Amino acid sequence: MMFRKLVLLAAVSIFSSTANAGLFDSSDFKCGRDDAVKALAEYIKDDASALLQSDFLTKSKFDYNKPVSAYQNKLDGITVNVSNASTGEEGSYGLNCTATIALQIPQETLDVVSSSPDYLRYVTGAYGKIKNGSVVWSDVSYNAKLADNKKEIIFKNFNKNDISDALFNVSVLAVNKDQIVKALSQGSLGETQSAYKNADRELNAVWKELPDSARNALKKEQLVWVNEKTKKCGKLSDAYSEGINVNQRIGIYQCQAKMTNERISYLSGNNN
């Protein structure tokens, strides 16, 4: 389906030993210090931006019909919140850190997930949980240390390696919301139309199999049922019209199919 490819490529390690530039005081360096927390949020955004730039060129996960700047601007506007950062013992690669990381989910992305729950895994990744409009990773462990120049913080060895990927995903889904929802609606329209047509063909077959005497006896009742179905569900001509809202057309087909299947059961003597 356009704008999504549910088969993901083999995961690439998201967090590497990339350094974040800045001017950092080496005295009393801790994981929860303001400069370290800010650097971690920037690191996650930088890593997500790299994923975006790469996929925009390769189209390996998403299709894009807008300039890369539109997706980058959306990504830049998403809040990355680092909280509860604590420092453990120093290990072989800097400080052993633990934190809670949360990404604000744009409303457009939530709308996409509401339209198709299949997209939820794009938002949460393998470990994230939805909470109050954000996706949250608890107990994220990682290493942090000052670079030799004492002007950068280097992060490595994250135990939850889906955070940058999720940030990249929610940005693209937000920008592509209208196209995705439209494509999903068109798919649902086709499915409901097909379901109605199948039910209508079956009804015609059941009707033809009735004895002549039964058809004659039921003819007036059948006409009343047809009119009642149109009154309750809407006209099929509206369901076929591209000038009618897609969701309204889907509703007509769903209602028509439901009532037709009920009529099939009645005429077949299978209703309870």
Order of helices and strands: EHHEEHHEEEHHHHH
Domain unit count: 2
Structural class: alpha+beta
- Give me the number of helical elements: 9
**For the report, how would you describe the main beta sheet?**
6 strands, antiparallel
Distance between the termini: 40 Å
Strand content: 15-25%
Sum up the overall morphology in one term: elongated
Give the uncertain stretches in residue-range form: 1-19
Tally of strands: 6
Mean pLDDT across residues = 86
Helix amount = 40-55%
Q: What Rg is obtained from the alpha carbons, in whole angstroms?
A: 28 Å
Describe how the helices and strands are arranged.
Blueprint: E1 19-21, H1 34-58, H2 68-76, E2 80-91, E3 94-104, H3 107-115, H4 120-124, E4 129-131, E5 134-146, E6 152-156, H5 163-175, H6 177-209, H7 212-233, H8 236-240, H9 246-268
Antiparallel strand pairs: 1-6, 2-3, 3-5, 4-5, 5-6
Properties at a glance:
about 55% helix, alpha+beta, about 15% strand, single chain
Commentary on this structure:
- The protein has 272 residues and is an alpha+beta fold.
- It has two domains: 19-175, no CATH class; 182-268, Substrate Binding Domain Of Dnak, Chain:A, Domain 2 (Up-down Bundle).
- The protein has helices spanning 34-58, 68-76, 107-115, 120-124, 163-175, 177-209, 212-233, 236-240, 246-268, and strands at residues 19-21, 80-91, 94-104, 129-131, 134-146, 152-156.
